[in-house]
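for the record, two folds in this file. i put them one after another cuz i was lazy. first one right below, seq on top, structure tokens after. the second one comes after a little note so u can tell where it starts
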Amino acid sequence: MASRPPTFQHIVSPYESIVKGDFDPLHETRAMDIRQIRYFVHAVEGKSLSAAAKRQFVTVQAVSKAISELEHELGIQLLTRGNHGVKPTAVGVAFYERARKTLANFDELDDFTKHFPTSRDNEHMSIALCSPSFANAEGVMASLSKFIGKRLGLDLEIFIAPGRESIEALHAGVIDAACTLGEYASPGTDCVSVGSLPTGVALARTHPLAHNRAITLSEMAPYPVVWSETFDDFNRSIHAMYRERGLASEAVRFPSNATDEQVNAFFSEQNGMAFGAVLPFNQTSGNLLTFLPVDQCDQVRVPLCLISLKSQKTDAYRAFERSAAAIFRGGQILGGS
């Protein structure tokens, strides 16, 4: 049966879709790709094609060609070019807002696939440590995996990943367990504490409190503290525990896609701080930040927890869980107890 020709009301122009917010760049049937969207977003944010090219390590000509092809495919001018850079047109502004969200979602999906092993077998055990990254994190995790794996006779891989993505991977059977700083509860999972860690705060080396040996909650009160959408919305985090204890500092919400520039400005210009666990190795990279413990009068230790599925526990995981408390006790690994 021949399909009915589309009537006028079934035809929506790209301009109308973009302005109405119904336009999803990656769901369009046109030949646009994520590269074109990325170049366009970075050109708008950097206010020039050269800024986008520098950010993507490509030539200005490559950026210009990709955005021109995107405009041709859409039949709409997105950027106004001038001697002093580029500016989005009216429809370009609307397209940017949609494209920025699409790019963030794509990057989040891309990051998700990079965090986790490509396959699992009965001789290999994978654990995701739900923690922000830190200086030499990859090397520390490799050493930790080797040490614990050798002690238990397991082929063990421990790596850092965001909390929600780790739980999704756990339910999908990609990893054997997640390890969280703070308690986590959800249907179908078990949470077992295997120790606890002292806590502290990261702050700029230029911060008024940077020369303290330790920091009290009352000293922190005038300064903002990070509330991370990636970690503090996920479980009973260190920040949440100090809120319960009476922390009066302003909580500044950080989105998962916060840029390095935004993070650096928060610490260096706003004298901001961020909670973390005290570990026996350097947790800050570069010269911007230092890390200080919370004073003993206010100190809260964060539980180190193993999260596993109630219905799916391998023999390797059960062996790890039985031995984990002894391994982490007394500071043998992370300075815990």
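(here's the note) second protein begins now
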Amino acid sequence: MIIDILEELRMLKNRLIKFSILISLVLLNFSMAPKVYVLGATLNETSQVHPSLNYEIARLEESAVMKPADGITKDQPFAVGTAGSEYFRIPVFTVMQDGTYVCAADARWDHTRDGGGSDIIFSISKDEGKTWTYSFPFYFGDSANSKIPFSEVATFIDPELITKGNTIWLFTNAYPAGVMSEQKFPAVGTGYINVGGIMRLALTDNYENADKNPKESDISVYPYYVGDFDNGYAPILKRLGGATAYWVDEVYHIYKKTPDGFVKLEQKQVNSDVIIGQNCFFRDSMFHVYNTTYLFMARSDDKGKTWTYKVLNPQVKSDGDAQLVTSPGNGLVLRDGTLVASVWERPDEFENPNGWIASNNDRSGFIYSKDDGVTWERMEGIGVYSNENHIVELNDISLRMFYRYDAEGGKISYIDTRSDGAGYTWRENCQSELEADVACNLSVLSYSKTVGGRQVILISCPATVKIGNIRYKVTSVAANAFRNNRRLKKVTLGDEIQKIGKEAFKGCRKLGTVNIKSKKLKKIGKNALKGIKPNAKINVFSNKLNAYKALFSGKGLGNKVQWNRK
């Protein structure tokens, strides 16, 4: 027992000052047993555990943050307010062979930015979209809101889906606390080390070491690793040999194993007194992973009721990659049953004082599995700057990959590849004359029928809306899109815009100029421009002036608005 206590205290050496008073008090009263939550038991059941760890044993009471409960929505999968999230981004939609609708998206909670504690929501409908049942296959929960600095919280982001029969594969990217922010970018490496010929996830008990790449030759920085999973749990083992008292589940929440079961370790939510369970991706937990990206895959054989999880880094990420991440959207199942998931790589550390932007070394690629996701191989990225991409299978069984591309002004570009049985080889890159903006990923589908005996590929590449100095690719302006934006002064709507949603610009009281380049505008939602600058200028083509005046009538514009011909 004394040896166990000494080992636990050694693991807490970096927190010793902070918790010295607490540990001293506990050691004076060795018979004190904390209240804990034992998996499979009742709340507040007493369990005999080492009191030296009293501060960290989970007391998961009503105030504790738990994964949001499953729920039901009507008519749409991610309505505003679903599970408490006001914003959802990066939606993925597919239809299973039996007609079941499947969706996933980022739950961005109270903000729309990349990172900052987003989680992955999943929703399924068996009645053609009338009723949806949602859940959270990937959830961290270490942040309370967007006021918490992004440099302190962990993130799940960018879902990708593949379905085959009744099986669903859901991919996403996990960023440890603070990674994927303006303060810290993913470091180069996989986060894994070779232990006895097997690649193992390395762990450190000192968060200050989490920026250091794990090395097989240096045991002191990452003295622990995760062992084999059995029934959803794996032990945390010492690289010098021997076990600890700690285990993780498949998404790396941390537990202590006691005679009564697995006990979840606790910590406080970032900048909050709310109690949450510890996780190896959190800043304040006992153990920490290396600060790089981790490509997660979840598999469900019962349409999302239960999931099993795997990190694919040791199979597909290389030691020279800072990032190997999903290209959000749909993967595909080839005619021969091979699973293909789009990814992109960033082979260098890339920091920019102005925030998160693309590196010129980004490369589009994909991973594939011939055994239903048990093992994966990687097709290395193409030789030109590119990142997010979508892939279709051609009739000659070649694969065609369309990708975001920023050369020569940005064009829709693609490249073909075909397997020779041993692997894939890229062919020559092709660039069309159709413009595409790197701010928006493409969506690509192979149409289910031929037209004139030829295969048809459908590509979604939105039209242009310019707000300030930023150009976005969209086909319509969504309802509430810029509602109450106090900084918006000028908007240019591109030539493909057909619809402005209700209250899209309501309350934008500084909005003084609206340039409408579109000749296709057909629908304006209720109060779309109510509350903009009273004497705002609306510039339209001469042959559309009267029609657009009538179209905007009753949509919130005052009688002082100035209509101008282009």
